Amino acid sequence: MYLTPQHILLAGATGLTGEHLLDRLLNEPTVTRVLAPSRRPLSEHPRLQNPVGDPAALLPQLSGRVDLAFCCLGTTLKKAGSEQAFRAVDLDLVVAFGKRAREMGARHLVVISALGADAKSSIFYNRVKGEMEQALKAQDWPQLTICRPSLLLGERIEPRLAEQLAGPLSKLIPGKYHGIEACHLARAMWRLALEEQDGVRIVESDELRKLGK
Q1: Domain containing 150 — which CATH number?
Q2: What is the pTM for the complete model shown?
Q3: Which of 47, 127, 129, 193 is buried deepest, with most CB atoms within 10 A?
């Protein structure tokens, strides 16, 4: 069964995947409103509401009905500057966003996690992503879709050296480890959002690539 959400809450609209997803949402005739809080202003659109400021401070101020929520939040350890700062974004802020989306009436959350997410992992990045997934599951969403992409490919405003070096190689790796274009991930997230399936669904990168093509 497919749904037609009209009021959407989006976090991370200025990021690589979030930009593609926002563009898709604003071009969908069934979407009435996109509420997208962000640190820097987005291009104006008649169906876009864009509160600007610190995301954590903006969350309690958000208002209005929400049918569906997308979370594309994420940073890097280098950009964050410390493990604590990284956790504040990729764990704490994501979980706070999920909580606020539920309070606003959203019944389905589609969130970007990462390939290898595991709360028991010895790798810090994977462990934080796993903890984030566990915390969102504990919010008891009617429908929770967790996307686990491999290396994201695409042109960022602020290029990441590691991704630039690993990108070409990731295209040669088969299966779920193959790199995925951010535009394909955004398209897959929208398709997944339209499907009604109770409970938690985890979608690995190879399936995301198929859905996004």
Answers
A1: 3.40.50.720
A2: 0.89
A3: 129
